[in-house]
Amino acid sequence: MGDRFPVLDRFADGAQHIGGRLRPGTSGRTQEIVDPASGDAVHRYELAGTEDVDAAVAAARGAFPQWSGATPGERSDALHRFAAVLAERAGDFARVESLQCGKPIKLSTEFDVPGTVDNTAFFAGAARHLQGQSAGEYSGDHTSYVRREAIGVVGSIAPWNYPLQMAAWKVLPAIAAGNTIVLKPAEITPLTSLMFAQAATDAGIPEGVVNVVSGAGRDAGEHLVGHPDVAMTSFTGSTAIGKRVAEIATSTVKRLHLELGGKAPFVVFDDADPEAAVQGAVAGSLINSGQDCTAATRVYVQRPLYEQLREGIADVMAGVRLGDPFDPSTDLGPLVSHAQRDRVAGFVDRARAYATVVTGGEAPKNGGAFYLPTLIADAAQDSEIVQSEIFGPVLVILPFDSDDEGIALANDTPYGLAASAWTRDVYRAGRATREIKAGCVWINDHIPIISEMPHGGYRASGFGKDMSAYSFEEYTQVKHVMFDNTAEVRKDWHRTVFGDR
Ligand code: NAD
User: Fold this and answer.
1) Residues 269 and 410 in one domain
2) Which of 135, 143, 193, 226 has the highest CB neighbour count under 10 A?
């Protein structure tokens, strides 16, 4: 356990980062942060109430004129300093992320934290690169151009699966474009979002530009979404809560960005490299204990390879090392909470009535929120285990015959966040990329993301893009500016009003 806990001393002042300082929440309710690997409470804090949300929005509103008025170069410099502070504190961030989420330390160290540093460096560069149409004389008598302007105060809500990366994906494009922000992390995992805001302040990003309210969804979350001084809502979370957030944001006429659930298909054609597909399916389904919106969840295998894949995946899953997230050899940590573990177990237990549990399907009795890597076969395409987002280390395998059928099955859920196709035939690969309805299609891999490329869903997985230059579309508004070039009192178009006078 050694160096797990001293980092928590820094939250002694509270878990609300408002106007550059930590303070306690005023809701009158406390929240425990539990180490899911042991079940022990490691910290307790006072949740944000609506007054804390009001204070954070006021701080963000107060900071907006100066921050949106800074030059792109000034914002870029601040973001470069921010990236440097994050990189200096990488070890701390990794430990706290592993503590509050139960992530294997090698995942926090090699994925969550460097991904966040890289994202920050990307947006430092992108801040100077807002692109738009060039100015032109489109009417003949006028010069038109487009201004891309910051929107105002952004209210963002994030989930618990990648708390640090989700904070980065929400905060960075928003502030790079000149907005200020109030972020509400999931109440069970606020710590690295608070450290992220603290690093922003320490890097010289003005107080009030980045605020964090650690509160519950129903009160602090809904209050933030409905707040009249919040101009935009960006939400990452489940589709069910996303619908509720959309209702509130729509009724208060806000710009809306929704990154919702997924149920990613993994389509293996009969010419694929079977060994690579087995490795890819296990890694793609178990990353972050399967609590990844793009995780491989449905493996469709063309009939000639089906048995080989079923056996191969079960064998590799059985060799995965579950254990203490702080042990560098641990492959799979616990789920984020005992409640999430029980939810996952519920899906598998219900599936026993209509499908085969090939491997796994058990929760080790060690006090932590662990669940064994699980492969399920013989389920019908319309069954719950194939159609619903489980968000755990559970993979379903199904056979298909024709290419048409494989692609149709891949598209047969309400979601459309990500997918992969496995083949050595360039035409099959091309067809899969065109016909699978998802915001990302990988060929012969599943999971990698990069700061330069957009991440976001189709259909019930939401709309709008995180990361990449495309996220500036979300966090800026476009203004058409038109100059008259004639200097005439009576313009040519006035004929439509004054007739022939
Ligand atoms: P969730 O929807 O339960 O909660 C997400 C956030 O919404 C939390 O901060 C929560 O406190 C808040 N919230 C809850 N009720 C609210 C309400 N009524 N009003 C406002 N806010 C409310 O999701 P979760 O369980 O934390 O995370 C898992 C989900 O997130 C999965 O569905 C996963 O697919 C999705 N996710 C999507 C992406 C993506 O990029 N599309 C990325 C990560 C996670």
Assistant:
1) yes
2) 193
- Going by CA atoms, what residue is nearest to atom 10 of ligand 1? 217
Q: Are residues 82 and 219 in the same domain?
A: yes
Q: Among 420, 443, 466, where does a domain finish?
A: 443
181 and 148 belong to one structural domain: yes
Asked about 101 being catalytic, the answer comes back as: no
Q: Give the pLDDT of residue 246.
A: 98
Crossing angle for the helix pair 72-88 and 163-176, to the nearest 10 degrees? 160
Q: Provide the b/e sequence for 262-294 (b: ≥16 CB within 10 Å).
A: bbbbbbbbbebebeebbebbbbbbbbbbbbbbb
CB 36 within 8 A of CB 369: yes
Residues 251 and 338 in one domain: no
DSSP 23: E
User: What H or E segment, with its residue span, contains residue 429?
Assistant: helix 426-435
Indicate if the alpha-carbon torsion angle 24, 25, 29, 34 is positive or negative. negative
CATH number, domain at 350? 3.40.309.10
Q: How far is the CA of 305 from the centre of ligand 1 (A)?
A: 36
pLDDT at residue number 4: 56
Q: Whose CA is nearest to atom 24 of ligand 1?
A: 159
pLDDT at 8 (0 to 100): 76
Q: How far is the CA of 157 from the centre of ligand 1 (A)?
A: 7
**Total tally of structural domains belonging to the chain:** 2
293 catalytic, yes or no?
A: yes
CATH number at residue 179: 3.40.605.10
161, 218, 224: residue to mutate for ligand 1 pocket, most atoms within 8 A of CB? 161
Residue 369: domain span: 264-443
Instruction: Give me the pLDDT at residue 131, please.
Output: 75
Q: Could you tell me the pTM of the whole model?
A: 0.96
Q: What pLDDT score was predicted for residue 1?
A: 41
- In the chain, the amino acid numbered 98 is S
pLDDT under 70 in the chain at which residues?
A: 1-7
Q: How many CB atoms lie within 10 A of CB 483?
A: 11
